[in-house]
Specification:
The chain has 216 residues and is α/β, with parallel strands linked by helices. The protein has eight helices and nine strands. Helix 6 runs parallel beside helix 8. It starts with 14 loop residues before the first helix and ends with a strand. Bound molecules: S-adenosylmethionine (SAM).
Length: 216
């Protein structure tokens, strides 16, 4: 562990310092030796959602090295015999985990998530699997997030979630990424989803107002 992270917790003078610490730490995480950019508290929320929803299919928009996709797929297997995970990224080829780590039902797709053809291909790969959960963790700007929400929402089954990650930067630190605004704008025009703020109970999370539950 790098020395700057070996901080006595009582020295945190403010919540924002603690949040910043967690954010910096989440870039150093790995699963099965593969990089995974995930706030551990968000991961606990995912564990709870997987337990409640028991998805047979997860679509992850933006995968980076693929560690998070491996984690999702392994954890879906606790509740389903052969769940399918689809992990999509523009740059996945260079970063893909070693083949021995990848199950046949874990499909890595190199494509632009904002393209209609990517959506059509993935919808065919899902077939009639349900429940389906979708995660938006791509570019985090307004254009990509809004486009991804509008393009992919219909795959999310009733009672499941469309999770928009990393809204914390806009929500708490005031940075103008655009993904939180895109989420709010999407919800204004789409009444099938409601923000499930009860999922945010661990507080120091990366996705405040990002757990969108399909309610109709
Ligand atoms: C924040 S990282 C994903 C982190 C990963 N989900 C995790 O938890 O470890 C964002 C990824 O999305 C990819 N990306 C950004 N825009 C994209 C797009 N329009 N289509 C596909 N992938 C995109 C980036 O190349 C990068 O790999």
């Amino acid at each position: 562990m790098k020395k700057k992270f070996m901080i006595e917790y009582w020295k945190f003078k403010s919540f924002s310092k603690y949040l910043k610490h967690i954010r910096e730490l989440h870039y150093l995480r790995k699963y099965k030796g593969v990089e995974m950019v995930k706030n551990p508290l968000d991961q606990i929320i995912y564990e709870e959602i997987l337990d409640d929803v028991r998805p047979e299919c997860i679509v992850e928009l933006g995968s980076y090295a693929g560690g998070s996709g491996l984690w999702f797929h392994d954890h879906m297997k606790i509740f389903n015999k052969s769940p399918r995970c689809m992990t999509i990224s523009i740059d996945i080829i260079e970063k893909k985990p070693k083949p021995e780590l990848i199950d046949t039902n874990h499909i890595f797709i190199t494509a632009d998530t904002t393209e209609q053809s990517t959506f059509d291909d993935v919808r065919n790969l899902i077939g009639n699997r349900a429940p389906v959960l979708v995660i938006e963790d791509a570019e985090h700007n307004y254009r990509t997030t809004y486009r991804n929400l509008c393009l992919w929402w219909s795959l999310v089954t009733l009672g499941s979630y469309f999770v928009v990650e990393d809204t914390v930067l806009e929500f708490y630190f005031g940075k103008k990424l655009g993904n939180l605004k895109a989420t709010i704008d999407f919800l204004k025009g789409n009444k099938h989803f409601k923000i499930d703020r009860e999922r945010e109970k661990y507080v120091a999370i990366n996705s405040p107002m990002g757990f969108l539950k399909r309610v109709s």
